[in-house]
Amino acid sequence: MYMMKQLATFYTSGSGSLFHAGWVQGLGFWRSGLQPASVGNDIGVHVIPFHAPLAPEQLKTNMGLDAESCPLLGDDPNRTEGMTFAASLLKPQSVGTIELQSSDPFEYPKIDPNYFAEEIDLKMMVQAWQKIREIVQERPLADRLDPESEKKDEAILEEMASDEYLEKLIPKLALTIYHPVGTAKMGPSTDEMAVVTPDLKVQGIDNLRVADASIMPTIVSGNTNAPSIMIGEKCAAMIQEENCKGNAVTK
What we know:
Layout: H1 2-13, E1 26-30, E2 43-48, H2 56-63, E3 84-89, E4 97-99, E5 110-112, H3 119-136, H4 141-144, H5 163-173, H6 225-246
Antiparallel strand pairs: 1-2, 2-3, 4-5
Helix pairs in contact: 3-5
């Protein structure tokens, strides 16, 4: 009912909660304390001011998650109002892989995100979930939200409030927010894992550069859009500089 009212308000007056751009209308960042302080913020949370479930077919196709294996992934027709908090790891330690499956360029590569291969990643996510629970129990959110409405995965025997429960639940829910980086790492020629040089040239191939998030040696503590734009701008500037040097006229 709430969303119907907001749709009507938006179409009649151009105001209301749907006037804002995008679903995410709040962001939070903090340090877990489980990594060195030099790492900076390693936890982020997206706040969506309404119940925002993902369709089971979308989860299966885009994320590889099966709603049947975890009831919490499916939509609840009885839940019409609420808020959505999505915690994310800004500095995960686990490293995934992307591999060719064949010589056919049209065949999708094999992508393994390798979530929670490092135990610290799971510990950070558990901490983030518990922190969100603390936040919703504080006013003014506590005046509108019912902390007891959090659904339990009955397949997990541990108490829902415990870290042990979350350690089993979170791997069943983990998905990407489309910020993977590092598949064509930038580095010196002495680094056998580096694909491109510091001027973004692909090692061993002439006249080819890479200028996107894939060249980041490590992920930034935040969204990758702005850094990717910077990488593209820097690459363009380097190409222009080289061309100007090559075309310079000596007197």
